[in-house]
UniProtKB/TrEMBL annotation:
One of its GO terms (biological process) is double-strand break repair via homologous recombination. This is RecBCD enzyme subunit RecD. The gene is recD. NCBIfam families: recD. The lineage of its organism: Bacteria, Pseudomonadati, Pseudomonadota, Gammaproteobacteria, Lysobacterales. In the RecBCD complex, RecB has a slow 3'-5' helicase, an exonuclease activity and loads RecA onto ssDNA, RecD has a fast 5'-3' helicase activity, while RecC stimulates the ATPase and processivity of the RecB helicase and contributes to recognition of the Chi site. It holds the Pfam family UvrD_C_2. Heterotrimer of RecB, RecC and RecD. All subunits contribute to DNA-binding. Keywords: ATP-binding, DNA damage, DNA repair, DNA-binding, Exonuclease, Helicase, Hydrolase, Isomerase, Nuclease, Nucleotide-binding.
Amino acid sequence: MSLLRELDRINALRPLDDALANTLRRLDPDTPDSVLAAAALASLAVAQGHAGFDPAQPRLLVDAELAWPEADSWAQALAASRFVATPAAEDLQAEAAPLVFEHGLLYLRRYREYERRLALRLRAIAAAAMPETGIDALAPLFAQLFPDAARGDAQARAAALALRRNLLLVTGGPGTGKTTTIARLLALRIVQALQAGHPPPRIALAAPTGRAADRMAESLRRAVRQMESFGIDDALAALPGEASTLHRLLGVIPDAPRFRHHAGNPLPFDIVVVDEASMVDLPLMCKLAEAVADGAQLILLGDPDQLPSVEAGDVLAGILRAAGDGNTLRADDAAALAPLLGAAAVASAGADIAPAAEAAGPQTTLPLFPAEPARPALPAPPGLHGHRAHLTRGWRQSDSLQLAPLADAVRRGDTDDTLALLRAGSLANIHFHDGTDDPLAARGFDLLAHFRGLANAADPATALAGANRLRLLTALRDGPQGARGLNARIEAQLSGRRIGSPPAWFPGRLLLITENSYRHGLFNGDVGLCLFDASGALLAWFPGGSEGVRAFHPAALPAHESAFAMTVHKAQGSEFDEVWLQLPRQDARVLSRELLYTGLTRARTALHIAGSAEVIAAALGRHAGRVSGLGWRLGE
Ligand SMILES: Nc1ncnc2c1ncn2[C@@H]1O[C@H](COP(=O)(O)OP(=O)(O)OP(=O)(O)O)[C@@H](O)[C@H]1O
């Protein structure tokens, strides 16, 4: 049986994937079956979050014992097909073919182009020169902001690098001070401009979701308050008080795939800071990078251990592969930043990292002293080395929740450590419900009472604040431990209606918006709740607006579902005081260490993990990694 038929037989393909293969067959009935199957798989790959399909690892996509072609002959058949372009260089636009085969990956042409354009733009942003002057003059303020700079403080290194690197990656787990560091480095850049007699740089703060943007702005305002005694009021006044979603920043044009801002109409900002970069997919990151004005600085913040974006890409992981571990400085940066970082600059200047290519330069002139052996030109630093600072020290007050040791064991995929920590029960406010598969029947924990309480809140703002106090997170969408089934059961219990009847409107119903609606100002991932208004009308309330809450008639809402239970994927970018993380009874492919890590790091004050040791072990043994060529394109 042909591979395409076999894939159909096991229902591995979506109708869209099949349609692509069938179109190619119609256009050329002699197209080999292996090429048709690969085309369908390249389409499926995007739906599963990969940038392309790797014929050497087909089981990453379809985990089945099929008659998979041998990788080399499959690659040869692809390269020989008239439907597959094989560009001569990674920078070149591929000729007009529906598929591109490059560096071992088969791409849908559009995704190869996103990847190529993103890499080009990131390299251009990274190469742009920063103002060389004013670093010495910043030393007193820098010492105030980062008293531990000379002792290797990674936050200080991140801030100092922002004065040298036009593309900057600041990474770290929750509470490692990414936002605090951003506030301080932005203050430094503003002071630098003011000291040079320039206007302050125009700064944009953005995040992939509204909730993440709100959290970013909130953390930034707190970090600004901490700087109020430093005598830099002018600079603090120039810091933005709000953050927007990436879509809003780029300017959505209703019903068009293009944004208002792009390379031809760049963003009017000198510095663009993007939080939760791990959630940004390939097309969006490409459009963002292209919309950043020439010479403007792009700063990406993110936690590399979190789940990758739901849509195609794993962009942050690709960029970070090219950026190294973020613990070293390039030699030229170390020299320039020595007035700020002192001894730490020397200590963290990586021996393997050569000065910038422009500083070393190819030797085109005769050596001054011919007797001295000519030294070979130093190679350019690999990829984006020297553009990343990785923060590891946790700064959160952890009296109430002792998350760090568990998050670390999960991040490492260490099953023994993870289970030992969970079973010992000695981490403050972490509770392991071993083998519990029904969160609504858990002993000593009354989820329904919490949800019922929301309906009795004094006003919508109080109810919305209460809603963020506790959330039920699931690994899966479907199945008995999935968000959908649990929502149906919770709705039934709260509304008194039968399970399976259409969702009812009742006070206290939590809602999750599942599409972007610019008309309503409601976006995918926004959470609201139903409550009566003063006149007794049942309305759906969401945060925002001049009053702090906005009301909508339930019948007029964009696509939505109940939000008592939410998948970890949907909860990315949000935090809740208390989290109940419900794992499925049986292992499932979407379970991974990144999913567990993302789920448990949503908790601020208490965490409950429910599931079996076997399922936890299976999840820890799996990576949510994605196939992508971005790291390679950026010179990993
Ligand atoms: N250098 C520091 N000295 C003292 N407190 C700090 C420092 N850095 C961060 N903090 C504190 O640690 C907490 C977390 O910081 P911050 O919000 O900046 O972390 P984050 O990495 O942005 O977190 P998240 O992952 O939630 O976005 C805050 O209360 C902040 O005030």
